[in-house]
Write a structure and sequence with these properties.
alpha/beta, TIM Barrel, 8-stranded parallel beta sheet, binds pyridoxal-5'-phosphate
C-alpha cells in the first residue's frame, strides 16, 4: 500500500455507499426478525482494502474496522491517524511477538486464544492511553478482548479448544490492562450459511456455561455470507468485509 494512496473515485465511493447501506438494511431486517432492540455492532472488515476505502467508509459514518494482518494494520493506522474516532479491531490470528506493534493501534482484539498471548497483551497494554472517542465496548481505557474458540475443532485454525476456555477466561478476568468482553468464532469457511448456525448456537451455549451475559456480554460472530444467521443466534458484533468493500484483491504471498 503506497503511503499516499489516491482517494476513491466518485463512482467507487458511490458503489461503497450503496453496499454499506445495503448491509445496514440487511442488518436492520435481521434485527427486526429477531425482535432485537439493540442492533449488533457492524465491524467493517477492511483487510486487503486500501486506506482510502476506509477513509471513504468513515466519511459515510462507519467507525469500527477489522484487520487481520499486523503490518497492514500498522500502515493503515498511521495513514489514517487524523480520523479521531476510528477504531481498529484485530480479528486475525495474532502472534505474540507482534503484539508490541499492534498495541498502539488496536482498540480491541477478537482473537485471543492462548494464555501466553493474553499475558503479552496485558503486559504491552499497561499504561496505554486511549482517547475516549476511540474506546470500543464502553468507556474504559483497558483493551477489550474476546476469546476465540475453535468451535468446529479444526486444529489448523485459530481459537482455543473449548476445554481450555475456562482457564483463559479466568486469566482474562484477573488481567489488569485488558478486559474480557466476550467470545468469538469463525465457522469452517466451506460451511453453508445455514450450517454456520449450529456453530453460532454452540458458541452461545459456551457463553451460557461460562458466566452468561453478565460476564461475556459480546458474541463476535457472523460474516458476509452468514451474519443474519449469527444475529438470530445472538451475535452482538458482525464482521463484514466483502459485502461492504467488494471482493478483496488477492493477498501478495498468500497460498
Ligand atoms: C475476512 C474475515 C471476515 C470478513 O469476511 P467476509 O466474508 O469478507 O465478510 C470476518 N472475520 C474474520 C476473522 C475474517 O478473517
Amino acid at each position: 500500500m503506497a503511503p499516499s494512496a489516491p482517494a476513491l473515485t466518485d463512482s467507487e465511493r458511490q458503489a461503497l455507499a450503496g453496499r454499506l447501506h445495503e448491509v445496514q438494511a440487511r442488518l436492520e431486517a435481521a434485527c427486526s426478525d429477531a425482535s432485537l432492540a439493540q442492533p449488533p455492532l457492524l465491524l467493517a472488515v477492511s483487510k486487503g482494502q486500501p486506506a482510502a476505502a476506509i477513509r471513504a467508509a468513515y466519511a459515510l459514518g462507519q467507525r469500527d474496522f477489522g484487520e487481520n494482518y499486523v503490518q497492514e494494520l500498522v500502515e493503515k493506522a498511521e495513514a489514517l491517524r487524523d480520523l479521531s474516532e476510528l477504531r481498529f479491531h484485530v480479528i486475525g490470528h495474532l502472534q505474540r511477538n507482534k503484539v508490541k506493534h499492534v498495541a498502539p493501534h488496536a482498540q480491541a482484539v477478537h482473537s485471543v486464544d492462548s494464555l501466553l498471548l493474553l499475558a503479552e497483551l496485558d503486559r504491552r497494554m499497561a499504561g496505554r492511553e486511549v482517547a475516549p472517542e476511540r474506546r470500543a465496548f464502553g468507556n474504559d481505557a483497558r483493551l477489550p478482548v474476546f476469546v476465540e474458540v475453535s468451535i468446529a475443532g479444526e486444529a489448523q485454525k485459530g481459537g482455543c479448544d473449548p476445554a481450555e476456555l475456562g482457564a483463559l477466561l479466568d486469566a482474562a478476568d484477573s488481567a489488569s490492562s485488558v478486559r474480557l468482553v466476550g467470545l468469538m468464532c469463525v465457522p469452517p469457511l466451506d460451511a453453508e450459511p445455514e450450517q454456520s448456525r449450529k456453530y453460532f448456537d454452540a458458541l452461545r451455549r459456551l457463553r451460557d456455561e461460562h458466566g452468561g451475559v453478565a460476564r461475556l456480554p459480546e458474541l463476535s460472530m457472523g460474516m458476509t455470507q452468514d451474519f443474519e444467521h449469527a444475529i438470530r443466534a445472538g451475535s452482538t458484533v458482525v464482521r463484514v468485509g466483502t459485502a461492504i468493500f467488494g471482493p478483496r484483491p488477492p493477498r501478495a504471498g498468500a497460498a
